Amino acid sequence: MTENRTSPRFATTTEAGVVTVRCAGDLDLAQTSKLRDVLLHPFAGGADGVVADLTETTFCDSTVFSVLVEAYREALAREIPFAIAAAAIAVARPLAILGLDRVLPLHPGLAEARTALAATPAAHVS
User: 48-52, 60-64, 77-81, 85-89: which has the minimum mean pLDDT?
Assistant: First the structure.
């Protein structure tokens, strides 16, 4: 039996001070360190806002959710707006089952996440 896995890919872009971290493919424990690095780096680098784009993530495990919570806490501590775009069942559904959709700033798409970020004052992250 062949396992259908999609290799993880990470890309970071910056537009008007807002950093978008695109995480695509299958994300699990093996990618947690890389994910943490690419997702937390913009907070330390002085970004005006950070979007975690998980719209092309095809699988993720609980370690990924831990990194998302860590990023959210970092955003709150630094008062930097943060949003997560996660439309796929692979991400949005497990977050909802765990109740994290009520805590994390989750949006169904990248456009919605960027819009929410633009409407969020730097001193209050929602």
Answer: 85-89
Burial track 42-79 (b if 16+ CB lie within 10 A, e otherwise): bbeeebebbbbbbbbbbbbeebbbebbeebbebbeeee
Give yes or no for a contact between 40 and 77, defined as CB atoms under 8 angstroms apart.
no
Q: Which two tokens stand for residue 25?
A: 């493919």
Residue 10 near residue 42, CB atoms below 8 Å: no
Tell me the average pLDDT across 105-124. 84
Average pLDDT for 3-17: 88
Per the listing, tokens 């996660």 go with 86
**For residue 108, what are the CA distances in angstroms to 37, 45, 62?**
24, 27, 19
